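Hey Z.,

So I finally got round to the protoporphyrin IX containing FE thing we talked about over coffee. Here's the setup:
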Amino acid sequence: MTHAHITTWAIALILFLVVLALHKSGKAKGAKIVSMTLRLFYILIVATGILLLLEININGAYLWKALVGIVVIGLMEMITVRTRKAKSTTVFWVLFVLALVYVIYLGFSMSMGFKFF
Ligand code: HEM
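And the result:
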């Protein structure tokens, strides 16, 4: 089950970069379509995350991991929307990178699936 979860967030990260690249090259229509697809993947990340939560005895550590995951999704959305509106994204990028590294560390150090840390 963790494989499905990893697949969804890995695809979401790629789509996120594609949306930003499309905006940068002025392809607004393409960026809009890929943004919609990215939002579908947000739902899939949360759905696979919730399925994982249902497999275990939920404790604070898992809820914290889930919360940080949701924050990462929120930051991706903030960055794509603010890039479209040509607003500053610097603060959101810093928070995004920190939260992303942290949630991947948390996920891979917890009991289910891979345990790299
Ligand atoms: C972009 C956002 C997210 C990223 C990058 C992410 C990353 C990860 C990673 C790397 C793992 C470890 C997989 C493994 O060990 O095989 C994991 C596991 C997990 N994730 Fe996420 N996740 C995200 C969002 C979420 C959300 C939104 C939820 C809940 C609603 C969630 C719930 C879980 C749970 C319950 C696990 C199992 C923990 C364990 O390994 O014991 N994740 N996630």
